[in-house]
Amino acid sequence: MVDKRDKADKLIDEMIAGKTPEEIVGEGGLLQQLTKRLYERVLEGEMTHHLGYPPRASEGKNSGNSRNGTSAKTVKSDRADIPLAIPRDRNGEFEPQIVKKHQRRLPGFDDQVLALYARGLTTRDIQGHLEELYGSEVSPTLISAVTDTVLEDVAVWQSRPLDSMYLIVYLDAIHLKMRQDGQVKNHAVYLALGINREGYKELLGLWVGEHEGSKFWLTVLSELKNRGVQDILIACVDGLTGFPDAIATVYPKAQVQLCIVHMVRNSLKYVGWKQRKAVAADLKAIYSAPSVEAAETALETCEAKYRDRFPQIARSWRSCWVNIIPFFAYPPEIRKVIYTTNAIESMQAQLRKVTRKHGAFPTAEAVRKVLYLALQRLSLKWKRPIRDWAAALNHFSIMFEGRI
């Protein structure tokens, strides 16, 4: 084995000796030539297997079929266009396997396109990228055809069975522009992110609707139940009117918790940049209070301090207080999971970054393609359970006895 490796290394050294990087991996370079030769050798081997005899062998005479030259075909790889000579037989029965009939792309090309699409590049961006780096001319239609192949994966993923129970489910929406009836309109993309028994994050699905509303959320929650989710301990939501009622209809035992991150963000939008640090510190005194009574005292202090300059802050907290106060009944271990691990916030930030270049999406399918690929890429980072999950799980088991 060592001798074979040494011989291979020696052969490679001889092939690349004195060559520039461009001569090795550039257009028409050594790597492209070797790829072409490798595929053509395999194709020739497939033809030999098909006919039962090698080229120019005597047993081919009067066999009823024979080689009949080659046909030219250019295929796209993840690095360049590769011109291939495809062998033919006289009877037209040869079916190549390594490069099938009508196949125009080698393995790796589609993955390259999908990886670029998942990073937020538009069809035109990908076209320019492939042409600039590899000299490969790719039409927008081909790129769309490649990305369309994920729609079947999206459908399977969206309808897959789910766990029977999630300890926390974050429910939120992002808003994107989409063309509809010749006009550009805002549409909501509904997202449900669950934390399972083992403490791992799992995106449960994405749904595209015209506007964010409690009626559509009711449809989303009903679908989750139909896919197997029978119980949710804590549903973490924004301040959308009617949202708690929609949750109670499908999951009456779920404890609705208003997202603290949303509350803080909504409060700070009324505040100028110079005052934000001070206001944020006063808001922290509310949501980090050890009890409901202490939180109410902190809210009163905040209200008195900013009544004249920012009266909307205290007003918004008081109007949502009934769905904020469950937070104060949780021990620090669960509070930390709800607040500091609000994964849907960081996930949305990534999605906004990916969709920023796309402007207005032509269809809902285009939205699903981009977000699905971006989410699959993002979920690769979710390889570990939430930090200090064991301690949080112990408290969940006590607070929600018999449901875990």
The helix-and-strand class reads alpha/beta
String of helices and strands = HHHEEHHHHEEEHEHEHHHHHHHEHH
Count of the separate structural domains? 3
Strand-residue fraction?
15-25%
**What is the percent of helical residues?**
40-55%
Continuous helix count: 18
Distance between the termini: 54 Å
For the sheet with most strands, the description reads: 6 strands, mixed
Report the C-alpha radius of gyration, rounded.
30 Å
Low-confidence stretches: none
Q: Write down the overall geometry.
A: elongated
Q: Care to count the β-strands? A: 8
Give the mean pLDDT.
Answer: 83
Note down, in words, how this protein is organized:
The structure is a single chain. The chain is of the alpha/beta class. The chain folds into three domains: 94 residues, no CATH class; 41 residues; 236 residues. Helix 9 links the parallel strand 6 and strand 7. The protein is elongated and about 100 Å long. The protein contains 18 helices and eight strands. Strands 3, 4, 5, 6, 7 and 8 form a six-stranded mixed beta sheet that branches. It has a two-stranded antiparallel sheet with strand order 1-2.
